């Protein structure tokens, strides 16, 4: 049986004009629902669509670097943000390590920090992939920033790219690709 639950609003108005009446009869509205659920999978109604990556330390081997990944959730997202997956897809240095325990998240943007957001981070060195779980999912309408801390910047100058995917909070979440965060690492100027 096909079961769909979703937060009423703009999505309902769009579906009403595109979905046959017979299918609409199967739709079940739940006022308390925060996400679109289809056959047991959870979706964003309006997924986040981009990610910003900022670092204020951009030369090779530089210590104290922090990489800030910022995601904005639409007020009509229909689901809270439950997880991010971040994978390094480009960059010469594939082995620079991270201090995973120093990772943190907060509402707002870098240098405009709001309240802290609990976060659990795992890093797979071989795959260069971070799995970031928000135990208290980030509600629609908020901007959240995740800070990842390498022990130092990469050892080689290059353009490093990180693919970011968001997952809504809920059963069997469907991924929402956000694109790539780009980090340029330079050789220091020497006279």
Structural summary, described in words:
The chain folds into 2 domains: 4-43, no CATH class; 52-185, Sandwich (Immunoglobulin-like), CATH 2.60.40. It contains 2 helices and 13 strands, in the order βααββββββββββββ. It has helices at residues 10-18, 21-24; strands spanning 4-5, 36-38, 41-43, 52-54, 67-72, 81-90, 104-109, 112-117, 120-124, 129-138, 143-148, 158-168, 176-185. Mean pLDDT is 85; it is low at 1-16 and 20-34.
Protein traits:
about 190 residues; mainly beta; five-stranded antiparallel beta sheet; disordered N terminus
Shape verdict? elongated
State the helicity in percent bands.
under 10%
Distance between the termini: 71 Å
**CATH C-level label of the largest domain:** Mainly Beta
How would you sum up this structure in a few lines?
This protein has 191 residues and is mainly beta. The protein folds into two domains: 4-43, no CATH class; 52-185, Immunoglobulin-like (Sandwich), CATH 2.60.40.2110. The chain has two helices and 13 strands; from the N terminus they run E-H-H-E-E-E-E-E-E-E-E-E-E-E-E.
């Amino acid at each position: 049986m096909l079961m769909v639950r979703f937060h009423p609003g703009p999505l309902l108005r769009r579906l009403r004009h595109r979905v046959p009446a017979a299918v609409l009869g199967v739709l079940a509205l739940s006022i308390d629902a925060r996400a679109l659920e289809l056959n047991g999978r959870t979706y964003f109604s309006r997924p986040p669509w981009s990610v910003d990556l900022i670092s204020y330390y951009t030369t090779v081997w530089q210590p104290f670097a922090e990489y800030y990944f910022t995601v904005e959730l639409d007020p009509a997202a229909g689901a809270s943000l439950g997880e991010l997956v971040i994978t390094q897809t480009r960059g010469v240095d594939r082995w620079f390590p991270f201090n995973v325990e120093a990772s943190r998240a907060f509402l707002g943007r870098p240098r405009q920090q709001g309240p802290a957001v609990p976060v659990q981070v795992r890093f797979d060195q071989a795959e260069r992939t971070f799995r970031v779980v928000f135990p208290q999912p980030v509600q629609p309408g908020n901007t959240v920033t995740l800070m990842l801390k390498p022990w130092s910047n990469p050892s080689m100058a290059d353009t490093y790219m990180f693919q970011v995917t968001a997952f809504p909070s809920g059963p069997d979440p469907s991924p929402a690709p956000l694109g790539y965060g780009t980090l340029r690492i330079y050789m220091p100027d020497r006279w």
